[in-house]
Write a structure and sequence with these properties.
Helix content: over 70%
Number of helices: 4
Oligomer: single chain
Largest sheet: none
Number of domains: 1
Structural class: mainly alpha
Order of helices and strands: HHHH
Strand content: under 5%
Distance between the termini: 28 Å
Shape: globular
Length: about 110
């Protein structure tokens, strides 16, 4: 199976986003870091999710966003965990929104 360049870039962006979210959740999140994580999330949403992966990604993304949002406030007293959840949200919210928009346009074309 041959992977397209966009899919390879998207896969690396996904992995990079996860790793950076954990690192910056521990080190600290500032405005520049937030922008970097948002851009990575946009790249993941645009390039990493194929047509056959949309529904599982949206379901998983929605669960991750909900769990990170509620979980972040629940475990805010545990050092670093709440910040890691916040960083994951910064990556996955834009990715999920982009995939959802792509899916709506795909449905509208049918």
């Amino acid at each position: 199976m041959v992977r397209s360049t966009g899919n390879v870039i998207g896969s690396w962006a996904f992995l990079l986003g996860l790793v950076l979210a954990v690192i910056f959740g521990i080190v600290g999140i500032n405005q520049t870091v937030s922008y970097i994580l948002i851009v990575i999330g946009l790249i993941v949403g645009l390039l990493n999710v194929g047509d056959d992966e949309v529904e599982p990604f949206l379901l998983s993304g929605a669960v991750l966003i909900i769990a990170s949002s509620f979980g972040g406030s629940t475990v805010a007293g545990i050092p670093y965990v709440g910040e890691v959840f916040k960083a994951l949200l910064i990556v996955f919210v834009p990715a999920t929104i982009i995939v959802a928009i792509k899916n709506v346009f795909s449905l509208a074309r049918r």
